[in-house]
Amino acid sequence: MKKTIFIVLSRIPFPLEKGDKLRAFHQIRELSKHHHLIVCALSDTGIHPDAYQAMKPYVGALYFFPLSKAGIYSRLVKAAFSSTPFQVAWFFSPRIRKKIHALIDHHRPDHLFCQLIRTAPYIQDRKEDKTIDYQDVFSAGLQRRRKVAPWYMRPLLQKEFKRVSNYENLVFSRFDKKTIISYPDREKIPHMRREEITVVPNGVDTGFFKPAGREKGYDVVFTGNMAYPPNVRGAEYLVRQIMPLVWKSLPNTRVVIAGASPAKQVRALASTKVEVTGWVDDIRDIYATSRVFVAPMQIGTGLQNKVLEAMAMELPCVTSPLANQALKATEGEEVLIGRDAAEYAKHVLSLLKNKDLSVRLSKNGHDFVVQHFNWERTTKILQTVITGQQYLITA
Fold first, then answer.
1. pTM for this entry
2. I want to staple 172 with a disulfide (CB 3.0 to 4.6 A). Which of 12, 191, 265, 331 is the partner?
3. Which domain holds residue 261?
4. Cα-Cα-Cα-Cα dihedral of 324, 220, 308, 332, to 10°?
């Protein structure tokens, strides 16, 4: 039965340079095939001129709510003297909540859905049937960041960790249904009934990300939003720890770090052997012209979209045990795992020197992603959560 689903997002899901945007966009696209959607999206960075047209084909009504910098600053100051997590305060506006409640009353949806704990305050007190997508465990990510952060940042991160952990526990009882991106993430949710959370993995658009025979201009590639701390740390680890060991054997190996908004630490990695591109109009061009994908994730949570995309394009992938916790690819067959810089370097050199190994890993990785991670399949799980109806999963 077709239902009206009211969706609240902390970001406008276009362009797709962040993981939460990617997840929201593809889930909306798939849900729109079977349901009527009303989407409200906040924006703290301005609205892309093509965002409305990109989203409109999939929704019945679409509302964007800009968040002013003055409002954000005011809420952060108030949050400093409360128990509200800073990232929840950042995105929460009482004025916008009033507008969203008026829209819910107007559209009278069958179900409310919000992505991330950041948007929970907008609908948590509504009586309608509602779902929250935790997506990642923010508290676990903060705990990992605290351990590697400069000493002067650790007290603030510890404070935010405690607040977020308490909030993740609090919102559990305020929503009828809960989803999350992976089983390892679910195990970290600080609630005794965490098993009630349904795992809804990400997917990859295998019609968009597919093998492309192109001349190789780069040997090693790492992609992602390069302002995101786990990616910043991963890029630094790749260039400063792993690549010097690779360059000892293959001194002409070229590295490309591609992704939006590179932090100054990432820009500082650029050299004659390392290209930092910034935003790329079509990331497939980077994947297609590279030989080996390396994602040395040391911190962060969730399922790494970048790894799914690279594997879908038949790039042999080397990543960390942390990243593979959610991916669950077979080590040595579908992905290679690096536990320290020396092991990463060993894998990179093997893939660059051994074409048979590279081809085998590429094919196996591609087949693995196609079989287990596609948006149609994963969003059917979400539909079952929202509607209570079973959907046949054939993909």
1. 0.86
2. 191
3. 218-372
4. -50
